[in-house]
Amino acid sequence: xxxxxxxxxxxxxxxxxxxxxxxxxxxxxxxxxxxxxxxxxxxxxxxxxxxxxxxxxxxxxxxxxxxxxxxxxxxxxxxxxxxxxxxxxxxxxxxxxxxxxxxxxxxxxxxxxxxxxxxxxxxxxxxxxxxxxxxxxxxxxxxxxxxxxxxxxxxxxxxxxxxxxxxxxxxxxxxxxxxxxxxxxxxxxxxxxxxxxxxxxxxxxxxxxxxxx
Length: 213
Known about the structure:
The protein has 213 residues and is of the alpha/beta class. It has helices at residues 23-31, 34-45, 51-58, 67-74, 83-92, 105-114, 144-155, 173-176, 189-193; strands spanning 8-11, 96-99, 124-128, 131-138, 163-167, 181-185, 197-199.
């Protein structure tokens, strides 16, 4: 891909834009469900449960929590260094930025707002008057990332070859395989094997040369 042809950057969220821990693990410490979430994360990483099964087992943790409750819990989630600065630099070049994640939209929402990212994917929880009831509205898996990004790209007349996907794990591989450039950022071996470029760095600034900035 010619650097000048980058039209859209799709970021994974957990361990790509976050530092040290996923949004769900951070939430578990704030909400007192550490043991339960640790168990689910181990099972998911080991491939013994799917994203759907993870959601089925964890949605109830959000019962009776409001948008404000979640925002307060996520307020001190540590992001990768220079996260907002780099995203603003990318957008200043006229490049679209979205978040494509298999995590809970409820947890991503307050961070996306901080980063001025309006479009983000994830598992949807049922809510009334901005209070979650612990039920699921829709699931979101690694293959849904392709559909999500394709839909956004179609709406904005962007070809897949002009898209950069940035991620760190196996849930990014399906998207990596269809976009113009795949960047494994602080990624595991599975993601690295399917990436065009590999970056290991604690600052998002190291991404910029790979998208021509």
